[in-house]
Amino acid sequence: MSDHKPLILVTNDDGITARGIAFLVECMQEIGHVVVVAPNSPQSGMGHAITISTPLRLYPTTIFPELPAYECSGTPADCVKLGKHHVLKDRAPDLVVSGVNHGSNTAISVLYSGTMSAAIEAAIEGIPAIGFSLGDFSREPDFSHIRAHVLSITRNVLERGMPKGVALNVNFPIKAAEPLKGIKICRQANAKWQEIFDERRDPHGRRYFWLDGEFVNNDAGTDTDEYALAQNYTSIVPCQFDLTAYKVMDEMERWNL
Amino acid sequence: MSDHKPLILVTNDDGITARGIAFLVECMQEIGHVVVVAPNSPQSGMGHAITISTPLRLYPTTIFPELPAYECSGTPADCVKLGKHHVLKDRAPDLVVSGVNHGSNTAISVLYSGTMSAAIEAAIEGIPAIGFSLGDFSREPDFSHIRAHVLSITRNVLERGMPKGVALNVNFPIKAAEPLKGIKICRQANAKWQEIFDERRDPHGRRYFWLDGEFVNNDAGTDTDEYALAQNYTSIVPCQFDLTAYKVMDEMERWNL
């Protein structure tokens, strides 16, 4: 690795055998040296979970025969931590990419998303990072329409660097008859899941629940990720990990505490 | 429940048998009607994880004999969802409180914190919410010094309501010889964990890793949660779930995408 190609750490939350990470690895090989550290099982909905109460396992895998690749028993955030501090301890990666997720991570889903937690974990470590998600939940999605955008967004980040404390949340629309219209810089839509619990009985007569929900968008803005995707654009939301609601601090100074 | 007392849902991330939730329940009983829905096992570090790939269990428990209380197989965020949409489906709670966590949730820890994910989940549902954490990791912490602050902060939130899209992250210092100096409204410190992986071999000769770390505060500000706690104040950080880095959006419009 004596050339000037960037070193790119690839992870995801659907697990190392998912089609989305295979596609992302293929794209990244056009740009740099690729190392894969990804979960050994699906981790959807894991949010920013980390593994602190049980030990972590990390094994080399031949699933990407030409590449250094490792499967990890932990969450996407664990994969980034192990990738940076163990696998790549002698040279920090120039970029961390996560995905391509099978399913969108727009609006409030950014909080539940393992894909984005990996990107945000990298941003915490000061490494430029992008989470990629496609609005297609199937196991065999068609990724062909997103390749040019994956490459162009990645090259922009590598050339320009990322503002401190920020990671990109990139969402692509499902493949349509028309080609993608372009890329929009967006804010996170004020849209959320309306939960429904599907109550059932197991064969032993005991109750259990499946969490299910309906996505409800009450945001009429035309500058949101949801709006861009509905118009067949790729959306990019720059995401920060400082959660402080600065605008509220002054108001709270007047509380009677 | 025909009086005008508020309905308060209590949860945590250390599990329903932890001392911290027993203390919080006791405090809340001075203020309102209390319902408990909490994890049946420790969920520290679970971040904003939700359970979507396995079914959830929810059982009534007699651990709080005078109260409606349920133990749940899921994460803190799951507990809030099940609490609101199933247990309290006929009357939404007026407040959700989470904790008191055994250990602090300052600075970047807010992202990894199950305690705060429960509070933020409630804020997403439009319910005022507070996560309480004490900087004492022991199993039997002394909570006596924080009771007045827990009550005063909770009463303020109930009287004033919370700004939309915000939940409070409250941290208390470990009990010192001197009484607490007061309460400070703070921003999230720019401080993080410097990861260390402790590599070991199991009895079968296979490698495993414990995630460990050292907390490093590179933030010299005197308006942070870390600073307030170090001065023996209780810190309150108002936290939002819109992660959009608005300041970066204009700059990104000039990218060559």
From TrEMBL, chains A, B:
Broadest EC class assigned to this enzyme: hydrolase
SUPFAM superfamilies hit by this protein: SurE-like
UniProt keyword terms in alphabetical order: Cytoplasm, Hydrolase, Metal-binding, Nucleotide-binding
Listed EC numbers: 3.1.3.5
Localisation per UniProt entry: Cytoplasm
Gene3D superfamilies: Survival protein SurE-like phosphatase/nucleotidase
Positions bound to a divalent metal cation: D13, D14, S44, N101
Entry superkingdom: Bacteria
Cofactor(s) required, per the database record: a divalent metal cation
Role this protein plays: Nucleotidase that shows phosphatase activity on nucleoside 5'-monophosphates.
NCBIfam families: PRK00346.1-4 (NF001490), PRK00346.2-2 (NF001492), surE (TIGR00087)
PANTHER family per UniProt: 5'-NUCLEOTIDASE SURE, PHOSPHATASE, PUTATIVE (AFU_ORTHOLOGUE AFUA_4G01070)-RELATED
The protein, known as: 5'-nucleotidase SurE
